[in-house]
Write a structure and sequence with these properties.
Length: 438
């Protein structure tokens, strides 16, 4: 029976209406096409997108003496084709099929280093489009290898001492050789990442001065928000304990560590001048000792040195009497703090560190308990300008960023040990090192 016969007869006899007739009826006169168009229209109308504001503004305490940003509206843009995981945005709102989700474009200088690569992991997981700039002085491509095939990720070999033009919404400026072994080896670059390379120490100056100037210039030009990763070293050998952000520090301006300490102090000054004078949106974090997977092996930082030594069955080298103190923050806590700072409304500076305070001998004991109870301790003369005490006061970060660390040393250390174990026994070329309590 065909549809024409049905119309003519006015009535359908179900017994005589076969499956073959039904199929023929459905495909006749493009009925299926009309049904599909109808379904598509209904789906588009019902999928309404609500994208929440990304700003997490918090009340500003009247007693807070630190600069507060002038609220330059941030651009939220950069659309790339979405994948399945983009169909539900951060707030759980539904995004219509075929439309593109909005995500931030974020530049991370020094993004293939220890802290930078963990930050990149978090930004990528959030759905951002991330560009890493790195000259691989201390960073490793391996740290970001797992993102290389992702279209939202770009890795550019570039020295921040040279200007560059990129279009981004946020800049996390981490590029700087951060360990004593590296900055004592190449101090001029550290300060000059800011001048001509006269010696290795100039590298630090160049990076901290010229590199920071270049990145601030970029932020100003493209109206991006800029975050500087400064350091607890700006407090030098502190005369106040614990260290509060309002403390101005006690730094030897001509010592072996000064290329790093003074370099970061200059970087903070430049950052605040761009903020006050040019209205650039800035954030400043003062990072205290941080540890975790992907730290450079043998870079002279005390946690990495103790762990590497214990794994290699070498004595743990303690400088001085081992009674100097430090606080140790697990890297995931730091990354959380950096992102809250970037997304929040306060310029800072903010101390980001774990207030738990350990002497070097106590740290050695935790390493012995975690890796090798029979590991020996070897005492050596202390290094020049080694601070006696270091402990952050994080009241400000608690109050204004709602942040505090959650991973204890005894929880975090084993996570780092498995990474070190794999890298040390997989790469026997790693050599010996000198240690510091930096
Ligand atoms: N890890 C800590 O305990 C700690 C403490 C205080 C401050 N910080 C700060 O945090 C940031 C990251 O430190 P980290 O521990 O990850 O150090 P890291 O050495 O692992 O990372 C620094 C990265 O910057 C890159 N870099 C250095 N100079 C550069 C230049 N001129 N141009 C481009 N790239 C350059 C390196 O190759 C490396 O990838 C640094 O600014 C450091 O001063 C870290």
């Amino acid at each position: 029976m065909n549809p024409e016969r049905i119309q003519n007869e006015g009535q359908i006899n179900p017994a005589r209406f076969s499956i073959k007739d039904s199929v023929r009826y459905m495909f006749g006169e493009q009925r299926l096409l009309f049904v599909l168009i109808g379904i598509t229209i209904v789906a588009l109308i019902s999928n309404v997108v609500v994208i929440p504001s990304s700003s997490q503004s918090e009340p500003i305490s009247a007693s807070f003496q630190v600069a507060v940003s002038t609220s330059v509206p941030r651009r939220i843009a950069y659309e790339l084709p979405t994948r399945n995981f983009d169909l539900v945005n951060a707030a759980g709102a539904r995004i219509p099929l075929g439309l593109k989700s909005k995500s931030l474009r974020v530049l991370v200088t020094g993004g293939s280093g220890f802290v930078g690569s963990h930050l990149v992991d978090r930004l990528m997981a959030r759905g951002d489009n991330v560009i890493v700039l790195d000259n691989f002085f201390t960073g490793r491509k391996d740290n970001v290898l797992h993102h290389l095939r992702n279209p939202r990720f770009e890795l550019i070999r570039h020295d921040v001492v040279e200007p560059i033009l990129l279009e981004v919404d946020q800049i996390y400026h981490l590029a700087c050789p951060a360990s004593p072994v590296h900055y004592k080896y190449n101090p001029v670059k550290t300060i000059i990442s800011f001048i001509t390379l006269f010696s290795s120490r100039l590298r630090y100056h160049k990076t901290n001065v010229v590199g920071t100037l270049n990145m601030l210039g970029l932020a100003k030009r493209i109206n991006a928000r800029f975050l500087l990763t400064s350091t607890s070293e700006v407090y030098g050998d502190p005369l106040e304990h614990p260290q509060v952000e309002t403390y101005w520090g006690n730094v030897n301006p001509i010592g072996v560590r000064s290329c790093y300490d003074e370099g970061k102090r200059v970087a903070e000054t430049l950052t605040m001048d761009y903020h006050r004078g040019l209205n650039t949106e800035v954030r400043i974090a003062r990072i205290f000792n941080t540890y975790g997977p992907r730290m450079c092996l043998d870079d002279g930082r005390v946690v990495s040195n103790f762990v590497a030594q214990a794994l290699r069955k070498q004595p743990l080298t303690v400088y001085g009497d081992g009674m100097q103190t430090r606080s140790f923050q697990y890297v995931s806590d730091l990354v959380d703090g950096l992102m809250r700072l970037m997304e929040g409304e306060h310029v800072g500076p903010f101390n980001l560190g774990n207030p738990g305070e350990f002497t070097m001998l106590e740290l050695a004991k935790v390493v012995q308990d975690t890796i090798d109870p029979n590991a020996k301790i070897e005492f050596r003369p202390n290094t020049e300008d080694d601070p006696h005490k270091r402990k952050p006061d994080i009241s400000r970060a608690k109050e204004l960023l709602g942040w505090q660390p959650s991973v204890t040393l005894r929880e975090g250390l084993p996570l780092m040990v498995s990474d070190f174990r794999q890298r040390i026994f997989g790469d026997l070329k790693e050599g010996g090192s000198s240690m510091s309590t930096f």
